[in-house]
Amino acid sequence: MIDIHEKSLKTLLKNGNKLTEAVVITALAEHLLVNLAPEQSCTIDKRYQDKSENQVCKCGCGAELKFGNTGIGHEEVWHAWDQKENEMSINKSETSVSDLSEDSPEIRQWFEDKTDSDHQTIAQAIVFSMLQKQRHPELNNFLIPTIVISATKFRIIMYDAENDILLQSNSYDLFVNEESTAKLSTSSIVILWMVLHYRIFCSGVNKVNLYEDLDKVKSGFIDRLPHECVDIYKYKLKSCVPSFPIVERKTMENL
Questions:
Q1: Alpha-carbon span 183 to 57, nearest angstrom
Q2: Cα-only R_g, the chain
Q3: Which of 76, 131, 143, 199 could covalently link to 237 via disulfide, CB atoms 3.0 to 4.6 Å apart?
Q4: Phi and psi at residue 183, in whole multiples of 5°?
Q5: Dihedral pair phi/psi, residue 201, rounded to 5°
Q6: How far, CA to CA in Å, does 28 sit from each of 43, 209, 246?
Q7: Angle at Cα 33 formed by Cα 29 and Cα 37, nearest 5°?
Q8: What single DSSP character describes residue 79?
Q9: In the predicted model, is pLDDT for residue 232 greater than 80?
Q10: pTM recorded for the entire structure
């Protein structure tokens, strides 16, 4: 089975950085991430529905792509649609096309040639972790991962909404060998699988071991927020949003 998905990925991703966002997103969703997810289901952001011909995978496998609303945040603070095309693109789903799983990590496309996207990526990771804390106050820990992925590489960002700890991995190659004979990296697949099943494998931050260096891994995000914004981030974040209303600039300027 893995050979089939490797072949499909090579077929769809062989043009590297010249590929469109829609092709990269749908290829990674259908032939990589969906196979590693707990319930083997995912939802691709609805913005890409019109860009995907016939709503089926373009490798020729005939798989029907699932689209839905994946916006997160709040219109008065940070939200997923306040930039252009370097925004959130895929959400993992363990339930259905329209009901995004509350257990799965956020997935975001990584534009390797866009150095200005890091702030957006970190912002999304922070907001998603805070959203999970809001929805699941019973969790043992709130060190929640975000997967940032491109056609060739991925990295992991983890934010602990309770302890304000922000961690980021190095990048990992999805493939080994040259493009013509590329094979999926076994170690990378295992890492992605463990991250997608973080509820099982993540035990949270060991503050005893991190005590001396704790300040080095704190983001300082909450400490810099106006009081009224803190309440929004803690209690009023939204998910599965198709779009956010426009808010006057004076409301947004300190966020």
A1: 20
A2: 18
A3: 131
A4: -120, 145
A5: -95, -20
A6: 12, 36, 32
A7: 125
A8: B
A9: yes
A10: 0.78
